[in-house]
Amino acid sequence: MDPQVSIIMGSTSDLPVMKKAAEFLNTMEVPFEMIALSAHRTPDEVADFARNAEGRGVKAIIAGAGMAAALPGVIAAITALPVIGVPLGATLMGQDALLSIAQMPPGIPVATTGIDGAMNGAVLAVRILALSDTALKARYDAWRSSLGQKIVKANESLADVKYDFKTN
User: Which of 82, 86, 84, 77 is nearest to 14 (CA)?
Assistant: First the structure.
């Protein structure tokens, strides 16, 4: 089974955040790979990965990065595949990474999630893949409809919370 999505992180210390992307892709039955690459420490490997990802069947890349957050932008500069950047809250509460990923030069876009938003990165990757995969679209649509049920259940639970002046 070849990966359709690559989850890239600067080091395994990013795994606690990036595993949320893996968990969602796994739930949606999307084949993926997880790789540690560093734009600063392994630039040649990053370039090789970006040049060869499409030829290996990868259709979207989710790249998590903190601090200088160069990884998503470097990958986007080399490949035409959609790159989804996940700013990691390593320093400055992730605001440095957010700005580094979001403020790409014209022609080198990186879709950007919120800080530590790896799951949303995976949701966006699934939305992209679902454009040409009807079975995946059905799984995604079913998952998406379940989101509303969580709120219905939350309101049912809140009905049991009692306060003297609560009216519902």
Answer: 86
- Tens digit of each residue's pLDDT (9 = 90 or more) over 115-126: 999 999 999 999
Task: Please name the residue that has the structure tokens 């069947």.
Answer: 57
SS3 content of the chain, % helix, strand, coil (to 5): 50, 15, 35
Between CA 99 and CA 116, with CA 65 as vertex, the angle to 5 degrees is 80
pTM of the model: 0.92
CB count within 10 Å of CB 33 equals: 16
Q: What is the pLDDT of residues 25-34, one digit of tens each?
A: 999 999 999 9
Q: Tell me if residue 75 falls in helix, strand or coil.
A: helix
Is residue 130 within 8 A of residue 136, CB to CB? The reply is yes
